[in-house]
Amino acid sequence: MRLAWMFLMLAIVTEVSGVSTMNFLSSGVGITGYLIMYVCIIFSYIFLGFAVKKIPVGVAFAMWEGLGITLITALSLLVFGSTLSTQELIGLGLAVVGIIMINAGEKHPEASA
Measured between alpha carbons, how far is 99 from 94 in angstroms, rounded to an integer? Predict the structure, then answer.
């Protein structure tokens, strides 16, 4: 199960990397930027596929999307100088609370002794 969570974290990191690369594409980095973006997105889906073999799809997808959006937003604020309105911050906070609630509600199989 621990390996599945590691795959999920890799899926999130590669998704964030791929999507963040899109911002650099507007500065004319050429085909290399597109290749990096597509490779990251492809690996993100591959890692997500490995993760859902042990983690319920709903939980894995909620965490993949929610944490991905949160990290992408944080990068946008810190690296790219974006700003968020109060409404956007509230929405992001609700997404994080939703992820926590979904993960907390997940039924864990009992360990056999």
Answer: 9
- pTM as predicted: 0.79
Domains: count for the chain: 1
Q: Is residue 111 part of a domain?
A: no
> How far lies 64's CA from each of 8, 40, 87, 110, in Å?
7, 14, 22, 25
* Distant-in-sequence contacts of 55-60, Cβ < 8 A, 24+ apart: 55/1, 55/4, 55/5, 55/8, 56/106, 58/102, 59/102, 59/103, 59/106, 60/8
Helix spans in the chain (H): 2-25, 31-51, 57-78, 86-104
Work out the pLDDT band at 113, boundaries 50, 70, 90: very low
Residue 112, both tokens: 């056999």
Q: Which residue has the tokens 């929610």?
A: 66
